[in-house]
Design a protein that fits this description.
The structure is a single chain. The chain has one domain: 3 Solenoid (UDP N-Acetylglucosamine Acyltransferase, domain 1), CATH 2.160.10. The chain has one helix and 20 strands. It is globular and about 45 Å long. The protein starts with a strand and ends with a helix. With 186 residues, it is mostly beta strands. Belongs to the gamma-class carbonic anhydrase family. GO terms for molecular function: carbonate dehydratase activity. It comes from Orrella dioscoreae. This is Carbonic anhydrase, gamma class.
Amino acid sequence: MIRKNPRGDLPRIHPSAFVDPTAILCGLVIVEENVFIGPYAVIRADEMDAENRIEPIVIGAHSNIQDGVVIHSKSGARVLIGQRTSIAHRAIVHGPCTVGSGVFVGFNSVLFNCTVGDRCVVRYNAVVDGVCLPPGFHVRSTERIGPDTDLLALPQVSADASEFSEDVARTNNELVLGYKRIQNEF
């Protein structure tokens, strides 16, 4: 469902993107080319700051927002998702938040008030809160990364984890083409 926010902003979706009919996109959401937005995802840019401003939620080209993902932002703050980034099933991205390009965010993970650098891998059930994660870091499953975390103790993304992330992005890009081909059948 594509709908306006209370201020009247409508999502802008590139014609090559696929948005599942069960997904909800509301307000100042920008979806770039060849993006896959899966079933029951909710992307809402509807809260305003004290001056009635809203920054956009931007989903970068060739990225995928999988089933049940929630992307929202407090008080109209910006959320940027880079290119070729995968946000896996039921993850939450709550702004203000910047997620770089080539990032993988695992199932049920939570990103809040943070920056996740390019090529990072955040595995399932992890939390990244209030921190700037430099490019290429690997957050293990169930870890909580915050302002007090010693980032030097975090491992760099391994070749296997990087290959997995690229495979997920590639697979979901193929889904865009398949679903776009049959979208008028449902």
